[in-house]
Structure formats: structure tokens, C-alpha cells
């Protein structure tokens, strides 16, 4: 009996929500398994569900929802990126900010060039169909995007703080750079690339980066000022929680409205709101918002991976590709190889350049750390899939042979990189970076071990030689001590400005007056 369209939609959504619940339950049962994580679990369940749907519909379809770019970019991506900025450890992130920009922007451009040129040269030997220069450059942008969602699920912020801050921070800048590149490719006439077009492209990139960041910071500061001045929590904690969530989403939509990089905007809005706004709300609202943002992000991540697993078996695309399986396998292999080469060409040379500017050996990247960063950034995910659908499909469907090969190859690379590289990342980190090495010895981004290192490495007490543990340690000269531990750093001046100007105006930890019902009202535990 034929179902009405509304009934079909209800059935599809019900089944998808049930699958989301099963992903959470199975992911919990596999939580202690060092090989599996939620992303791989969701992909596996999506693949199994796709097979079952394919069999029950007699090969007509494999998924219950058709891919929609609006659903991805407008509803699923914002909570993931905002929560990443909201939860990120700001000290480690900003201390490594220059390196993050180096890997995220320059590294993406290097990978973009390698993938674009590689596909232009190697695809000509395969019978793919017609692809113009815009398609090749789009492939460069699509496969230059390391998936920050995958990285979040594989790396742990507490276990590997330095690697997390760099790989994930790079992933956010990388995604933003890839999307800006992709949009620029669609805007500009690439049939005749001139120096003028190149200069315009660089100018647009800088404009997008700066204005997107400023917009996110501005919306975050406005939310902090409103909540600090009005003390909304005195009357209703629901209102201040709702205001925080809506202001966060507003930053993303305003960036979309002004054609800016919404990823950068909502990411920096999350950082600012965690630094100012979150400290201005009541204690109950702090707990609520922290868990609400994390929950929305978690559901969105699982939703994306579940859908990608289902769409991997889309019969419409595979029917076209099945006529030339060798060509499809060749394209997927070439793309995967270029991803590996492009990632290596960006990580290792840039790490070498970064090490040249670091005086302390402890701050330099070792080869093992570089290999870990290279490996963790090999995964491709939802952003690559969304951009591929944008370039090679119309409303989620395609009938052209070349476009079908590009879509199926993208999904193949995403599945292979997420499952294989994702499965091996945790054991690889444990092999290359033992737990004793992760606690503080590596880290240009770790502050936890600083007091103990200061006591052992920088004796300041005695005028002559200090005795620590029975060993005579020579006291360094004042000049040497000043060079080793400068008292006037960028962070010092920022904290001074923050304490004297920003926090009195926008609130934050310790800068909200004790008013009955205010965010700093004492609590009895």
C-alpha cells in the first residue's frame, strides 16, 4: 500500500532517530575499546542500515534521507564548530596560534596545489569523462580539508593537549580555508588566470579571514555585555541560556548573510563567549549551557557519520560507476595517494621551518610528533562530502558518469581514511608518544608542569648556588634568566589589557559584582 508523502517522511525520520539512539548505545558499550570511536561506530551502523534498506527495497535505494547541503551547513555544522571553540583550552590554542595559522592556511594551500596538479596530470590517463579546470581545482579544495570532526573524536584534549590544539586548530582554519578556496573557484573565471586575478584572490582570502574573525568576536562581546548588564538570570535562567544559544547561532547566520567564513565566525564566537559570557550567567546556567552545547555537537557529529555510511551504498551513483569499476578504483587510489603526499608536503617542511624559529629544544617538534600530526590530519569527512556534492551533483542526484565517479570516489576516500586511519590513530599515538611523555615533557602548549619545571630548572632563591635535593645547581646570570623567562610577553600584555579594560566592561571570571541573584551569588555545596 502506497504511503502518503508526509507519512513517508515521518517513517524515515523515526527510523533515523532510532539509528542515532543505537549509535549512542553501541558507542557506549565500545567506549573502552581503543580501536573504536563514535565516528567509526556510526559509519558501520550506517553501512549496515544501507545494506538492509537496499535489500528491502529490492535495490532501489540505500538511504532514507537525501543529502541536503542546507541541512549540513545551516543546521549540523554550527553546533560542532561552536562547541569546539567553546570547549577549547584557550591558553594552549593561542600560544600555538601562529603555528596553527601556518599549518591551517599555508599547509592547505600547499595541499591544494599538489592535489589539483596531481589530478590534472594523472586523471588524463583514465577514461573519466569531461572535467574542466574548475573541477580539478575544486578537487584540490575538497581533498585539502582535514576533517575537524574526525580529529575531535580521535584525539583527546586532556591526554594530548599540544597535538589536540594544533591538529584541531589547524582543522578549523583548514576547513575555513578550503571553503573559501572552493567559493573563490566558483566565483572567478579560471579559464585565464592572471596576476590580477591571483592578487584579488589573496585579497579576498585575507578579507574573509579578518572580517569573519571580527564578526565572531563582536557577537560574542555583545552577548557578554547584554547578559552582564541585564542580569537576566535573576528572573529566569531559561532566558539567559536561550540567549546564549541564539546569539551563538546568530553569529553563524550573519556570516552566511554577509558571505563570510561562517566556520571561523562561530568558532571565535565560541571562544569569546566561553571567556566572557559564560562567567556572567548563573551557576546553573553554566552547567546547562556547557552540557547543551556538547550534546548538540555530539548529536550532529553522529548524524553526519551515520548519513555518510548510508550514502556510501547509493545505488543511483554505483549503477553508473559499475560499468567501469577499474576506473573508479584508480580514481580513488590516486586521490588517496595525493592526500597522503599533500599532507606530508605541508606538515614536515612547515614543522622544519617552525623549529628553526624555536630556541628551546623542548619547544621543537620531534619527528614522532610530526608523524602523529601528519597521520591525524589524513582523515577526510563531512566537509569534503558536502563540497563534493555541491560541485558534482544537483539536489543530491547525478547522472553524468564523470560526476558519479567523483562522488563515489570521495565517499570511498572518506570511508577509508576515517575507518583505517581513525582505527590506527589511538594505537599510533600510544606507540609514538607514551603517557609519561604526554604529561608535560612535550609541550610548548602545556602549562600544567610549569611550576615544577620552574623549581628544578630555574633556581631563583639563593644568591649563590642553590641546593635542591642535595645537588648543587649553579644560579644563572640575571641576563640569561631574563632571556630564558621573559617577563613581558604578548600574553602578559593581553592579560593586562583584559583585566583593565575588557573584563570590567564585558564581565568574566572575577569581574561581576556580588548582587543578589547575580552570576556570582555564593552557592552552598
From TrEMBL:
Its GO biological process annotations read: regulation of intracellular pH; sodium ion import across plasma membrane
Cite the InterPro entries for this sequence: Cation/H_exchanger_CPA1 (IPR018422), Cation/H_exchanger_TM (IPR006153), NaH_exchanger (IPR004709)
Q: Where in the cell is it found?
A: Membrane
Cellular component GO terms, alphabetical: plasma membrane
UniProt-recorded Gene Ontology molecular function terms: potassium:proton antiporter activity; sodium:proton antiporter activity
Q: Which domain of life is it from?
A: Eukaryota
Which catalytic reaction applies to this protein?
Answer: K(+)(in) + H(+)(out) = K(+)(out) + H(+)(in); Na(+)(in) + H(+)(out) = Na(+)(out) + H(+)(in)
Q: Which Pfam families match?
A: Na_H_Exchanger
UniProt keyword NAD, yes or no: no
The reply on keyword Transmembrane helix is yes
Domain called Cation/H+ exchanger transmembrane: residue spans:
21-429
Q: Which residues cross the membrane?
A: 12-30, 42-59, 71-88, 100-124, 136-155, 162-185, 205-227, 261-279, 291-310, 330-352, 373-392, 404-424
Query: Which UniProt keywords are listed?
Result: Ion transport, Membrane, Potassium, Potassium transport, Sodium, Sodium transport, Transmembrane, Transmembrane helix, Transport
Q: How does it sit in the membrane?
A: Multi-pass membrane protein
Protein name as it appears in the record: Cation/H+ exchanger transmembrane domain-containing protein
**Could you tell me which species this protein originates from?**
Gossypium tomentosum (Hawaiian cotton)
